[in-house]
């Protein structure tokens, strides 16, 4: 008898989460190892200033000082590679939550246990969210601890604030993937649509200062809630947190409704 869908899902993801965690530790170590060379190369700032404005906006480098730990990490890790890693995990976990069970023909077995469909969706969501927060916690701890070895000093509270916003970014798109997975059972669609929307949301937020149309919708972008408030310098932006949480709540509710209305019998 299945005691907990959440516990089973986390157990099934154990090896994957371990591999992701190790990969993030190595990724942060790579950026930390490069930091001394960047810090001692003043021409990096001039190079960034000479980039076209569109490129500076796309990679969140506008006004960033690469000679400081905060500016370096913001440009090199938090503007691109960090979000990509978190989004890949969260979208994959959300898409596979329901659709993956159907692909493996294990959904009937899961639903034969005394758990309702709403409980299945909620437990699958919690597993995805906990995994996402775990990975961002690993990234944040790696930044603080590994940075000490190369004088890449970052304030722990500001790193924690940034990781909170990064985790919520992942959970928003993971919840969208879950809603599509629960409503359609199609893992390909559930991965592709959130990934495409994540790219579009990134472009909207990055190019908003240059494109009037994007400027009008920038605040709708989850990337705006993630990075526009500059959490690595300013700390937690609670209005951004509230918007992200509300978005997730709506998407999870849609996932529950969508899964309850579907015929998932083999």
Question: How many strands appear in the DSSP assignment?
Answer: 0
Largest sheet: none
Overall form: globular
Element-by-element helix/strand order: HHHHHHHHHHHHHH
Which bin fits the share of residues in helices?
Answer: over 70%
Strand content: under 5%
Regions with pLDDT < 50 over 5+ consecutive residues?
none
Tally of DSSP helical segments? 14
CA distance, first residue to last residue:
21 Å
Structural class: mainly alpha
State Rg. Answer: 20 Å
Number of domains: 1
The average pLDDT is: 87
Features:
about 270 residues; mainly alpha
How would you sum up this structure, described in words?
It is a single chain. With 266 residues, the protein is mostly helical. It has one domain (5-260). 78% of the residues lie in helices and 0% in strands. The protein contains 14 helices and no strands. The chain has helices spanning 5-12, 14-39, 43-50, 53-58, 69-78, 81-103, 107-111, 117-147, 156-184, 187-207, 212-217, 222-228, 231-234, 238-260. The longest helix has 31 residues, at 117-147. 42% of the residues are buried.
């Amino acid at each position: 008898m299945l005691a907990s869908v959440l516990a089973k899902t986390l157990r099934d993801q154990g090896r994957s989460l371990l591999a992701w965690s190790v990969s993030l530790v190595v990724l942060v170590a790579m950026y930390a190892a490069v930091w001394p060379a960047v810090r001692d190369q003043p021409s990096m700032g001039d190079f960034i200033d000479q980039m076209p404005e569109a490129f500076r906006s796309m990679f969140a480098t506008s006004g960033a000082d690469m000679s400081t730990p905060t500016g370096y990490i913001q440009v090199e890790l938090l503007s691109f590679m960090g979000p990509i890693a978190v989004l890949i995990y969260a979208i994959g976990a959300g898409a596979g939550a329901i659709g993956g069970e159907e692909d493996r023909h294990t959904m009937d077995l899961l639903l034969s246990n005394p758990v309702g469909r709403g409980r299945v969706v909620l437990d699958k969501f919690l597993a995805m969210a906990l995994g996402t927060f775990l990975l961002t916690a690993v990234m944040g701890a790696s930044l603080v601890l590994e940075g000490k070895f190369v004088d890449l000093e970052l304030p722990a509270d500001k790193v924690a604030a940034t990781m909170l916003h990064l985790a919520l970014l992942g959970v928003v798109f993971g919840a969208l993937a879950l809603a599509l997975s629960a409503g359609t059972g199609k893992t390909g669609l559930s991965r592709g649509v959130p990934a495409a929307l994540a790219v579009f949301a990134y472009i909207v937020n990055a190019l908003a200062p240059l494109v009037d149309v994007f400027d009008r919708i920038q605040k709708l972008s989850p990337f705006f809630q993630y990075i526009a408030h500059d959490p690595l310098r300013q700390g937690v932006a609670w209005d951004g947190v509230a918007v992200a949480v509300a978005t997730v709540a709506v998407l999870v509710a849609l996932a529950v409704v969508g899964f309850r209305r579907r015929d998932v019998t083999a």
